[in-house]
Amino acid sequence: MQPTRVISFGCSFTWGDEIDGENQCVHSENSYAGLIAQHFSVPYLCLAIPGIGNDAIERMVTEYLMQDKQTGDIVVIGWSALTRREYIWRNSYRYLIANMKHNQMYQEFHDQIMSEAEWDLLDREYYQTVFRTQSILAYFGVTNIMVNCLVGPKNLNGLDISCMDFYSWVLKTEHPLGKGRHPLGEAHRAYSKLVLTALYEKYPLMTRSSNHQ
């Protein structure tokens, strides 16, 4: 398989917030997903949106499959926080961000979801989203990698599950963060190598770039 394009879905971590400066207004070509495209010397299409939740990511992946799928695409997905939600307001999509500790929404959300059983429901909902997305990508035969599934046990009933997300990995490996708590370029460069290794393991027939070490 010869890669021809890399497409990313996710939140600000995949978008590459703070890599190119504190007041960055466009996505970074040097995010871990952008570096995958550079590795293969192919175009990079970033469909990640800062603040987006997993329901919106799933919707956007489905829309891509219906409207813009091309032979040779590599889809890179970085799942977001469980506490984010998408809604429609006046015919446009909006996003609720309930995982920012300094805002009132965070406190109200956590006041309502207290028990372990209720958090388990959120986890179950997340896994269902991952499974559905993996299934539809497999149905369409699209090369893909879900970066939350790179570290730790990788299998549940034959399907990948999240074990450690990008942010948790950055904290564990003690890479520096920006003022807004986003991973900086050093972390993205290191993480892109993990993603590439996982891609080559998952798709051993993929054409290897001359840049691959």
What's this model, at a glance?
This protein has helices at residues 12-15, 32-40, 54-67, 104-112, 116-139, 166-173, 185-202, and strands spanning 5-9, 44-46, 73-77, 84-89, 92-97, 143-146. With 213 residues, it is an alpha/beta fold. The protein has a single domain (5-80, 129-202), classed as 3-Layer(aba) Sandwich (Rossmann fold).
Report on the structure:
The protein has a four-stranded parallel beta sheet with strand order 2-1-3-6, with helices on both faces. A two-stranded antiparallel sheet has the order 4-5. It is globular and about 50 Å long. It has one domain (5-80, 129-202): SGNH hydrolase (Rossmann fold), CATH 3.40.50.1110. The protein has 213 residues and is an alpha/beta fold. Helix 2 (32-40) packs across helix 7 and helix 3 packs parallel to helix 5. The model is unreliable at 152-162 (pLDDT under 50). The longest helix is centred in the middle third of the chain and has 24 residues, at 116-139. Helix content is 40%, strand content 14%. It is built from seven helices and six strands. The two termini are 19 Å apart.
Order of helices and strands: EHHEHEEEHHEHH
Number of extended strands? 6
Query: What's the CATH class, please?
Result: Alpha Beta
Helical fraction equals 40-55%
Key traits:
alpha/beta, 14% strand, single chain, Rossmann fold, four-stranded parallel β-sheet, globular, two-stranded antiparallel ribbon
